Amino acid sequence: MGVARIRPAGKLESPWHLRIELLDVKPLVWRRLRVPANITLPKLHRVFQTALGWTNSHLHEFVINGVHYAESNPEWAEELAQVDERRVVLSKALGGESRSFDYVYDFGDSWHHLVVVEDHRLEQTANSAVLCIGGENACPPEDVGGPPGYADFLTAIADPRHEEHQNYLEWCGGSFDPARFDQTVVNRALGKIKV
Q: Which overall architecture, per CATH, does domain 16-137+178-190 show?
């Protein structure tokens, strides 16, 4: 795997526009992100965690062109057939033809995301900042039990008569709004990521 060279400051480049969608949940959770063309997979992981509202508490992997990329973990690398993601640049991993890839977070809950590469020639900018340019709905709470557990969770918190209603509310901190999405808050958090 080659390492992308850093472009000189001020040189115009086309950022990538990515749409990441969390599969198998309702309401649909998605974000549209602008990222630098030379973003590495570890930085992209941080961007996804921040934009979606995950807490980076679990393992993850990218599946791009059939290759599984993840953090270097000698204990699991051979068994999971994963490639160390540390120096991998997204554009190099995608090659010239791929327009989508998978991002899996938390192998227990198995949060599967589809990432689509949208037209990355939409704008020319010297600004390499990551930006959320769209999205909808809140990310499920960590450790809720994957898509089936999230569906049960939403059913319980919506019905005060449900036997698990109070337990779930206490577990999630008192309230949860599945429709919550604040683009300004997301961009403030993304602004702290150095790319």
A: Roll (3.10)
> What global pTM score does this model have?
0.88
Residue 40: CB partners within 8 Å, gap ≥ 6? 4, 85, 86, 87, 88, 89, 90
- DSSP per-residue string spanning 1-38: ---PPPPPTT--BPPEEEEEEETT-SS-EEEEEEE-TT
How many angstroms separate the CA atoms of 121 and 1, rounded? Answer: 24
What does the alpha-carbon distance between residue 36 and residue 125 come to, in Å, rounded to a whole number?
10
How many helices and strands (H and E) does the chain possess?
6, 8
> Counting beta carbons within 10 angstroms of the beta carbon of residue 63, is it exposed (0 to 12), middle (13 to 18) or buried (19 or more)?
middle
Structure tokens at 97: 């033809």
Q: What is the pLDDT of residues 36-77, one digit of tens each?
A: 988 999 999 999 999 999 999 999 999 999 999 998 877 766
Residue 181 Cα distances to 52, 129, 167, angstroms: 9, 20, 24
* Strand locations in 12-128 (E): 16-22, 29-35, 60-64, 67-70, 82-84, 100-105, 111-118
AA identity, residue 12 = L
Distance between CA atoms of 76 and 37, rounded to whole angstroms?
A: 30
